[in-house]
Design goal:
The complex is a heterodimer of chains A (about 450) and B (about 290).
Chain A (H helix, E strand, L loop, with lengths): L1 H22 L7 H5 L1 E8 L2 H17 L4 E8 L4 H10 L8 E5 H9 L7 H5 L9 H5 L11 E2 L5 E6 H6 L11 H10 L6 E5 L7 H12 L7 E2 L4 E3 L3 H15 L6 H4 L4 H9 L5 E7 L17 H4 E4 L1 E2 L8 E5 L2 E4 L7 H11 L15 H4 L2 H4 L4 H5 L5 E3 L6 H16 L5 H16 L4 E2 L1
Parallel strand pairs in A: 1-2, 1-3, 6-9, 8-15, 12-14
Antiparallel strand pairs in A: 3-13, 4-13, 5-9, 5-10, 7-8, 11-12
Helix pairs in contact in A: 10-19, 11-19, 11-20, 19-20
Chain B lengths: L1 H39 L9 H4 L7 H8 L1 H33 L4 H16 L2 H12 L4 H8 L7 H4 L1 H26 L3 H9 L4 H29 L3 H6 L11 H11 L3 H28 L1
Helix pairs in contact in B: 4-9, 4-11, 5-9, 9-11, 11-14, 13-14
Classes of the chains: A alpha/beta (about 450), B mainly alpha (about 290).
Chain lengths: ~450, ~290
């Protein structure tokens, strides 16, 4: 008896790992099924995207009999979503047919070979001419090919409190013509509010600090971050230094938020959902989505917000160029290179982004013809904000952009917390980027 | 004689055959990844961008870059402080003290205290992080309690970030050391203690001359385990401070994650993980050496 059980035990020891090994193999996908199914993945939670896609799916399935559109949510935050979709796109077994792709990652993913170029397709598509030109340039890869169809875009500007401005004797509507005028206005209201001027200034806000603050400044100077002609990063410039000096001016004059919360990850939410409705913020340099918080469906409903808050475009440093500046990002629909069903996927993208179907919540539309529709213009300031798209800038989101952006955030936070002077922070930025991307890829 | 030998050989073959599946599994899932890690750390592998399509061997570039990077130095320093303060000193001493003080106390007492300390250990890291975030935040429990004493609220995670995460890790991990020391202390023969008591040794002498030398082996084993656990702590710090503010709580695992999954530099991140592995191995060897010499 004892012997049998011992042998049995040994048998188990041998068998269990074998079973485990066999179980490691995957299931084969059903070929016939996949021909008429297209799968789309999106960043969840996003109710307005989901609602729009459900409508587009209904429309598409009616027109294409026997076709099934599978809409798969990927629960993740801003930071994880690209990682998750990249891992899916790496393998033929898991690549979806359509991916909701942030324009930020599009150039790098295209260079990595994860995305299918759709240059020919959009050329033969009548609707393509209705998309804003700057938005279209934002979905091009390094090679000049187009890799996605924009579904939304965004801009940044100066939200300001009309009530506070009027009480302080500043003219409303406010239209600052230079950085100095912005600082002057903040100084004027310094004693009236808790935060005269709010802007993302910490590493904890990640890309927000780069895009909503630093690039909004830098693109208003005569300098740039990236030289498109030489393909090199500009690690030292007059404009870079001036941008840091502006941030320094805000914090050294106590015009910004208290640093005990102002550079934490929760600061943005505190400003938009708590301090702004309380009238404790004078100016906020932030994205057009900010007002979404105050809608009835938002995080912090504030029905009277229109009476108090307005938005003005960010001026360039001394009023040069267009006199105003903004930066845009946005989302696209793209087709992975390893998708099973590229033709059908393209057909679906066309249907979903048509004038009739493209209704993505309160996001700024990338289509000029939709921007003229009455129901679109009903949203407060929507028309005014959409006009910013005429002079917008896109980020040089090439391979090394995440590294460069991290270094920018580090420099901004160092100036904000007074750890480094603007000059020292630029020196640190130069050293960081030179080390990280290589000496041959930077210039002054 | 010869029959015995062939029997032996047969036995070895049998043993080998029976062990084979496990050996294959270990090779596949343990040794394989380590070798891959070693290889990838010498490449420019990236999650996206041109380097993802065309990964190349870059020699020691990643390591050169690492040793030039001031952030790497900062995170090594943070890792060492975190390791020594929270694991080597904190968890060991707290764990030992709790176990020692509980020794030979009434059973209900041992039980209640034991369960309380264990509660911190069985709670998953992410839950520990949330609990402590709520406790330490601006309007958190701690600040409210300090408020009753008339003390102004302190932004703990902002002004004392490293001390905060060290404290939380001690709270979370001390129970493990406590269990180890409890087992070791229970193994000390009663006679030895009694003999020393009869010889007139006071409590301090008994602890220093009798108890500690006997449990030295367990202490070193515990040191190795706790060190390795603490070297790898990621969730706790990441959820509490994200490595910030600035780089004040960026330890090597956080630095590695940032490089690999925020900056998409998988090769560089892998090189950092290799350094982490080497630190772990070196420390373990030193501890074991220490055990052997005496």
């Amino acid at each position: 008896m004892k012997k049998i059980s011992k042998n049995f035990l040994i048998l188990l020891i041998v068998l269990i790992p074998m079973v485990a090994l066999v179980a490691c193999g995957g299931d084969e996908e059903n070929e016939a099924d996949s021909k008429n199914t297209i799968e789309l993945v999106y960043k969840s939670p996003d109710d307005s995207f989901k609602a729009w896609m459900e409508d587009a799916k209904k429309d598409f399935e009616e027109k294409h009999e026997g076709v099934n559109v599978k809409i798969t949510p990927i629960d993740s935050n801003e930071g994880d979503y690209p990682n998750k979709t990249i891992l899916m796109m790496k393998s033929e077994d898991t690549a979806p047919d359509i991916v909701m792709e942030d324009s930020e990652g599009l150039k790098a993913d295209a260079a990595a070979g994860y995305l299918e170029p759709i240059t020919e397709e959009v050329k033969n598509w009548d609707d393509w001419k209705h998309f804003y030109d700057p938005v279209k340039s934002g979905v091009k890869g390094e090679d000049g090919d187009t890799y996605g169809v924009p579904i939304s875009t965004d801009v940044r500007g100066l939200w300001y409190n009309k009530t506070v401005f009027e009480e302080a004797g500043l003219g409303v509507p406010w239209n600052p013509k230079s950085w100095d005028e912005v600082l002057d206005a903040a100084k004027t209201i310094k004693d009236d509010v808790e935060v005269p001027i709010w802007m993302n200034s910490g590493k904890a806000m990640g890309e927000g600090t780069t895009m909503q603050t630093f690039l909004m400044l830098l693109y208003g100077t005569d300098s740039n971050l990236y030289n498109e002609d030489t393909g090199k990063w500009i690690v030292e410039s007059e404009g870079f230094l001036d941008s840091l000096k502006f941030i320094d001016a805000v914090y050294s004059n106590d015009l910004g938020p208290s640093l005990s919360w102002g550079i934490t990850g929760q600061a943005g939410a505190k400003v938009s959902t708590d301090l702004m409705p309380k009238g404790e913020v004078g100016i906020a340099l932030d994205g057009n989505w900010m007002s979404g918080n105050w809608l009835e469906s938002g995080n912090s409903p504030w029905p009277e917000w229109e009476e108090h808050i307005d938005i003005a475009p960010m001026p360039t440093q001394d009023g040069q160029g267009d006199g105003k500046v903004t930066v845009s990002g946005g989302w696209t629909l793209a087709i992975p290179a390893k998708a099973d069903n590229k033709e059908l996927a393209w057909e679906f993208i066309k249907t979903a982004t048509s004038k009739e179907n493209l209704r993505y919540g309160t996001a700024l539309t990338p289509r000029k013809d939709i921007a003229e529709l009455e129901d679109y213009q009903q949203l407060t300031y929507q028309q005014k904000i959409t006009d910013y798209l005429d002079f917008t800038n896109y980020r040089p989101t090439y391979d090394s952009y995440p590294l460069v952006s991290s270094s920018i955030q580090k420099a901004v936070e160092a100036v904000t917390t007074d750890t480094l002077s603007p000059k020292e922070a630029m020196k640190q930025f130069k050293e960081d980027v030179t080390r990280d991307v290589g000496e041959e890829k930077v210039e002054e | 004689m010869s029959k015995k030998k062939s029997l032996n050989g047969n036995m070895y073959l049998k043993t080998f055959l029976f062990g084979l599946p496990s050996i294959i599994l270990i090779m596949l899932f343990v040794l394989g990844p380590i070798i891959m890690t070693f290889y990838y750390s010498f490449t420019n592998m990236a999650l996206t961008g041109a380097a993802a399509a065309d990964t190349q061997f870059v020699g020691f570039d990643n390591f050169v870059r690492m040793f030039q990077d001031p952030s790497f130095k900062t995170s090594v320093l943070n890792t060492i402080i975190f390791l020594i303060a929270s694991a080597v000193i904190g968890q060991q001493i707290v764990g030992f003290l709790v176990a020692y003080l509980m020794k030979q106390k009434a059973r209900p007492f041992r039980r209640v205290i034991g369960i309380l300390v264990l509660a911190g250990w069985i709670t998953p890291e992410i839950v520990v992080a949330f609990v402590w975030f709520a406790y330490l935040s601006d309007q958190g429990t701690l600040n409210i309690m300090l408020g009753f004493l008339g003390i102004k609220p302190v932004a703990w995670l902002l002004n004392f970030p490293l001390i905060s995460v060290i404290f939380v890790n001690i709270w979370h991990g001390a129970a493990f050391s406590m269990l180890m020391y409890q087992a070791a202390l229970d193994d000390i023969p009663q006679e030895v203690e009694e003999a020393s008591r009869i010889d007139g040794a006071n409590a301090w002498q008994r602890l220093w001359r009798i108890t500690l030398p006997i449990i030295k082996g367990s202490a070193v084993t515990n040191m190795v385990l706790v060190t390795l656990q603490t070297l790898g702590v990621f969730t706790l710090i990441y959820a509490l401070t994200g490595g910030g503010p600035g780089e004040k709580t960026t330890t090597l695992p956080i630095f590695m994650y940032d490089q690999a999954f925020v900056n998409y530099q998988l090769g560089y991140g892998t090189a950092i993980s290799l350094v982490l592995l080497l630190i772990g191995i070196t420390l373990s060897l030193i501890y074991i050496r220490f055990l052997k010499t005496e």
